[in-house]
C-alpha cells in the first residue's frame, strides 16, 4: 500500500481537535465515550484521516472494554503495528497502513477465530453504513 504523508500542520487543519489528538499524537479517548463503542450498524469502518478500509462490522464484537473492538482487520495491509512501551507496559500499537494514524492497540484476548482484540478509538474511524 502506498503511504500517504502530510505535514502535521495539514493534518491539524483537516481533522477535529479530538481526531488530531488521537490519530496524529497517539492519544486515547475515555472508555465508553466514543461514537462507535456500542454501534451495531452494519458497514465498513474506514480511517478517519485517509478513508482506508480498516474493519468490517462483521468482525466487531462487544469486548466490554468501552472501545470498539474487532477480531480482525479487513486485510493485513490495512493496518500496521509496532511495539508500544509507554505507560510502563508492553502493548502493540495499531496504525493505519496507509497514513500511519494511531488507531489503538491489539491484545491477545479476543474471540475465535483469531483470538485477537483490536481495541480501537472511535475518533480514528468513520463508519460507512452498508446499503
Automatic annotation (TrEMBL):
Name the SUPFAM superfamilies on file. Mss4-like
* A single MF term (Gene Ontology): peptide-methionine (R)-S-oxide reductase activity
Q: Name one Pfam family in it.
A: SelR
Q: Which reaction does it catalyse?
A: L-methionyl-[protein] + [thioredoxin]-disulfide + H2O = L-methionyl-(R)-S-oxide-[protein] + [thioredoxin]-dithiol
Q: What are the protein's UniProt keywords?
A: Metal-binding, Oxidoreductase, Zinc
Provide the top EC class. Answer: oxidoreductase
EC number(s) reported in the record: 1.8.4.12
InterPro entries in UniProt:
Met_Sox_Rdtase_MsrB (IPR028427), Met_Sox_Rdtase_MsrB_dom (IPR002579), Mss4-like_sf (IPR011057)
Question: Which GO CC annotations does the UniProt entry carry?
Answer: cytoplasm
Provide the GO biological process annotations: protein repair; response to oxidative stress
Q: Is Zinc one of the keywords?
A: yes
Q: Which residues form the MsrB domain?
A: 8-130
Q: Does the keyword Zinc apply?
A: yes
**Quick one: which residues bind Zn(2+)?**
47, 50, 96, 99
What does the entry comment about cofactor binding? Binds 1 zinc ion per subunit. The zinc ion is important for the structural integrity of the protein.
Active site, per annotation:
119 (nucleophile)
Q: Which cofactor does it need?
A: Zn(2+)
Q: Which family does it belong to?
A: Belongs to the MsrB Met sulfoxide reductase family.
The protein's matches in NCBIfam families, at most eight in alphabetical order, are given as: peptide-methionine (R)-S-oxide reductase MsrB (TIGR00357)
Name the UniProt record assigns to this protein:
Peptide methionine sulfoxide reductase MsrB
Q: Gene that codes for this? A: msrB
Amino acid at each position: 500500500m502506498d503511504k500517504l504523508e502530510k505535514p502535521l500542520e495539514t493534518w491539524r487543519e483537516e481533522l477535529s481537535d479530538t481526531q488530531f489528538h488521537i490519530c496524529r499524537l497517539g492519544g486515547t479517548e475515555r472508555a465508553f465515550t466514543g461514537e462507535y463503542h456500542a454501534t451495531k450498524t452494519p458497514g465498513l469502518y474506514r480511517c478517519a484521516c485517509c478513508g482506508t478500509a480498516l474493519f468490517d462490522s462483521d468482525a466487531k464484537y462487544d469486548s466490554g472494554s468501552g472501545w470498539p473492538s474487532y477480531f480482525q482487520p479487513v486485510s493485513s495491509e490495512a493496518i500496521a503495528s509496532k511495539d508500544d512501551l509507554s505507560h510502563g507496559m508492553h502493548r502493540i500499537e495499531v496504525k493505519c497502513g496507509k497514513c500511519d494514524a494511531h488507531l489503538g492497540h491489539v491484545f491477545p484476548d479476543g474471540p475465535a477465530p483469531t483470538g485477537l482484540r483490536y481495541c480501537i478509538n472511535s475518533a480514528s474511524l468513520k463508519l460507512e453504513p452498508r446499503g
